[in-house]
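#struct-help
A.M.: can someone run this one for me? Single chain, 343 residues.
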Amino acid sequence: MRTTTKGNPVVAAPGKVFLVGEYAVLEGGTSVLASVNRVAVGEFIPELDPGSPLVAQAVKAALAALGDKGRALPAGSVWIDTSAFAATGDAPKSVGVRKLGLGSSAATAACAVGAVLEMAGLPITAHRDLAYSLAESAHRAWQDGAGSGADVAAAVYGGLLQFTRPSGDTPVVRNISGGLGALQLMVFSSRTAVSTTNQIRTMRAFAEREPERYAGLLAPVREAAERFVESLASRNARETIAATRASGGALLMLGDAASVPIVTPPFARASAIAAELGGAAKPSGAGGGDIGIALFADLAAAQTFAERVSGERDAGLQILDLKIDDNGLHRRDAGIATREHNV
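D.P.: on it. Structure tokens below:
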């Protein structure tokens, strides 16, 4: 992993997985997500051209917000490395490198803003809320207003988060103290790349076409997320798993009604295996077969799930070796260990 060639500050931002609350979070509902240790790395480099419209948007926003401090910086942009979000060796040769759906664009926006702040002498640790506001605004503009901003929150704040955006207003981000407790989290993929934006747009078209039906189908998704948060607070592992299972079932019904493939056949198979072992498995995020999560009350069940899923050759499922990242957006200093814990 590159650190720096210019002596400028190097920053890093993690990816994410949604645990519950997908789609409902777009309508003011609660979601829970975890930052994971696939990180984007960024460095401000003078005279560098932006590597993408997203980086250009984020750098421009950060420089404008800094006023005189921003104008004092040399002309340049932020170099971003998101190679940690790629899955190689499991895609057809005609496809090449496949991006895992772990929020690389959100991490990119966070890194771009963070690198500018650090270059201007504003430590991320003291300006995390500013970093989130700037990165989230740039990311939403890049997505043409789609998305909730929850993935950017994971990239900036780290850990296990409860995220709500009431009626499209300022997001409310809360760290869930104690994390998942003794629950075991597994993350898996079916090696299928999915466009989150397209999934959301198709769902939005359904909502506009049949608003009452959409609201009725979204209600159980919202309720499952609230149930999940309450059970975590009371350390009721059995209830947390039941809420996860209910969330997956609600997403299946919503996707079928909207003709959005949230729960694909391989993910339905993963859900069945998890249920047999006393756990729960479901899609994470917009669905479509990219990333899924599973929760278990004990390590033995989680390990058995991993073995069985990996052996389902027809399903093509793959367990991802991930840990929860507690750092969020941070300056990467040589010799300083990152904070992460097993999932």
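A.M.: thanks! The longest strand covers residues 30-46.
D.P.: also worth noting: The chain has ten helices and 14 strands.
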